[in-house]
Design a protein that fits this description.
- The protein is mainly β and 102 residues long.
- The chain has a domain of 64 residues: Alpha-Beta Plaits (2-Layer Sandwich).
- The protein is built from two helices and six strands.
- Strands 1-2 form a two-stranded antiparallel sheet. A two-stranded antiparallel ribbon has the order 3-6.
- Strand 1 and strand 2 form a beta hairpin.
- The N and C termini lie far apart (46 Å).
- Bound molecules: iron/sulfur cluster (2 copies).
């Protein structure tokens, strides 16, 4: 335990002192935290333009795009943060970013 720092209990793993935030106690638990309300813009897919190439799904950093039973892609707005990467990589401009209405 370092002196003069937080009084929070620190763990030592393999001789390394970790702060509490550095320990993943339940892998996968972040799926319980819906982060979609951070968004100021939402991606909207025009399925009539979509070629089902999957690039949006590949590049989404939040795994917020899913393939549906028809082979087209859908946005999971519970987790999409509105970064716009999917719209940037779509080769046929099938995704537009639209201002979020609150
Ligand atoms: S806007 Fe960003 S987070 Fe949302 S679906 Fe597109 S790539 Fe994923
Ligand atoms: S990147 Fe564009 S064309 Fe490709 S699957 Fe996504 S929406 Fe469809």
């Amino acid at each position: 335990m370092r002196k003069g720092k937080s009084k929070e209990k620190r763990e030592v793993i393999n001789g390394i002192e970790l702060t509490p935030g550095g320990v993943i106690r339940s892998p996968g638990s972040t799926s319980a935290t819906k982060t979609g309300n951070w968004r100021s813009e939402r991606p909207v897919i025009d399925s009539s333009k979509c070629t089902r190439c999957g690039l949006c799904w590949t590049f989404c950093p939040d795994a917020a795009i899913r393939k549906n039973s028809n082979g087209y892609f859908e946005i999971d707005y519970d987790y999409c943060k509105g970064c716009g990467i999917c719209a940037s990589v779509c080769p046929v401009k099938a995704i537009t970013m639209q201002k979020e209405e609150k």
